[in-house]
Automatic annotation (TrEMBL):
Protein name as it appears in the record: RNA methyltransferase
Family per similarity comment: Belongs to the methyltransferase superfamily.
Domain of life: Eukaryota
Segments forming domain Bin3-type SAM: 1-135
E.C. no: 2.1.1.-
UniProt entry tagged with the keyword Methyltransferase: yes
Gene Ontology process terms (BP): methylation; snRNA modification
Keyword list, A-Z: Methyltransferase, S-adenosyl-L-methionine, Transferase
Gene3D superfamilies the UniProt entry points to: Vaccinia Virus protein VP39
């Protein structure tokens, strides 16, 4: 197994460039940077960033996310003219990230893997692990088609029920492990 560590600007300038992204990583870490991407590139930039991460992961890949809390944004909004302007345009808040990554981007599961212990309260943020299904591209297209058909036939009220499907929220570690085991068995039988 080889390891490659890359540092750089992962935010593309426009959505059309997403189609050039190749599946090349098994794991992507996003620690303490969502606020900075959000303040510098706004809602569209952060959503594009999340979509690119999904596309950059190989099937079965893992995305580790440490989102920063919304109140921390206000403290840094005046850093530049751009951050100040973007702060007041933000509608896509950190509490929306999980749902967006699961429902809109396409990650199959989300698991809370822990909250680091730190002297600074601001760094005690949950670490979330999102997984990309271990499927071939044709399977993903079929699944997307099925999901779109399901969306058309289901009502909005079922989406907002008190018991959302497991794939629409982060599971605690024990529940997520059970769900992942079932998912792994299903993926294995579908090969």
């Amino acid at each position: 197994m080889s390891y490659r560590y890359s540092v750089g600007n992962f935010v593309l300038s426009k959505d059309e460039l997403l189609k050039t992204q190749k599946e090349e990583y098994e794991t992507i870490l996003c620690l303490s940077i969502t606020k900075w991407i959000h303040l510098n590139w706004g809602d569209d930039g952060l959503k594009r960033f999340f979509r690119r991460i999904f596309l950059a992961l190989k099937p079965g890949g893992v995305f580790i996310l440490e989102p920063q809390a919304w109140p921390s944004y206000a403290k840094k909004k005046k850093m530049t003219e751009t951050t100040y302007r973007n702060f007041y345009k933000i509608e896509f808040k950190p509490h929306d990230f999980k749902r967006f990554l699961l429902k809109d981007v396409g990650f199959s599961t989300c698991e809370v893997i822990g909250t680091p212990v730190n002297q600074s309260k601001g760094f005690r943020r949950q670490l979330l692990m999102f997984k990309k299904l271990n499927r071939r591209p044709a399977d993903a297209q079929i699944a997307q088609s099925i999901e779109l058909n399901h969306k058309d036939s289901s009502s909005q009220s079922s989406l907002e029920s008190s018991n959302p499907p497991a794939s629409l929220h982060c599971l605690e570690h024990k529940e997520a492990t059970k769900w992942k085991d079932r998912q792994w068995k299903e993926d294995k039988t579908n090969l």
